[in-house]
């Protein structure tokens, strides 16, 4: 049986910012490279800390995101959740699960954020 | 001439309702489309609320995002306090009408509440002080004339124009009045009799202006001519 290859391009969050102040770029990058390396294109930004109007700000270059998805890029979980919330992709099941957990045992301090960087799976 | 527009209303378009996403985040998440080729007015900006609904952004959110990512030169994050009602008087006392209008043109969208309010206050102040000459030969003069014509408070502007012997300008103003208010008495008369030139102004002052103004103007003209 032929071995199915994973796409070599992924959409992921690249961590920028400084200590205690995370800030992410949404990028198309090489799967096997490290998080902030071999970035083909920046597709937007995501600011996980609420601003003074109590909103998190994200920008998406939807045209280019469509391009990369059409070329077989795989959105990692964090980006897939964001795209689901923005209404571009179907809502990611993980975000529904996080919402259920948050409802069941609400956290008082607002540090509990569901979208974190992809530190997991450096597979293959 | 800066744009004159109707005041905008918030659109309450709900794109998606997902009760299962309730509690995902404690704050709104604002998504801005930064694809090229969009203008500030037609850019897609959507908001995911804490209760899971996805809706179109309101105008204040849109303005904030457009400022963050597509800033105009001279625009600031917070509106300058000189554009607030209590400080406008200060600027007017120093004859800063043009500067105020220039600032609000950069700062606000032409259909925002603040834009319309500041323009209105400025024009009313100019009318009160009869200092129309401040705006003459700037881009704001047309907007001022349009406002006065729309609100039917043309009298002092016409007097000012006639005193400067700009008869053709006065005719244009009266013609604009006839376009904006086609059912007014002077418009009907001048259409019936096919008036042109100075007669237009005369008919307008007779029918719409305060009593005695025509006489006053004619006497004034005589004195001007004899001098």
Automatic annotation (TrEMBL), chain A:
Belongs to the bacterial ribosomal protein bS16 family. It comes from the Eukaryota. InterPro entries: Ribosomal_bS16, Ribosomal_bS16_dom_sf. It is found in: Mitochondrion. Pfam families: Ribosomal_S16. This is Small ribosomal subunit protein bS16m. One of its GO terms (cellular component) is mitochondrial small ribosomal subunit. Residues 99-124 are annotated as: Disordered. GO terms for biological process: mitochondrial translation. One of its GO terms (molecular function) is structural constituent of ribosome.
UniProtKB/TrEMBL annotation, chain B:
GO terms for cellular component: mitochondrial small ribosomal subunit. One of its GO terms (molecular function) is structural constituent of ribosome. Pfam families: MRP-S22 (PF10245). InterPro entries: Ribosomal_mS22. PANTHER family: MITOCHONDRIAL 28S RIBOSOMAL PROTEIN S22, SMALL RIBOSOMAL SUBUNIT PROTEIN MS22. This is 28S ribosomal S22, mitochondrial isoform X2.
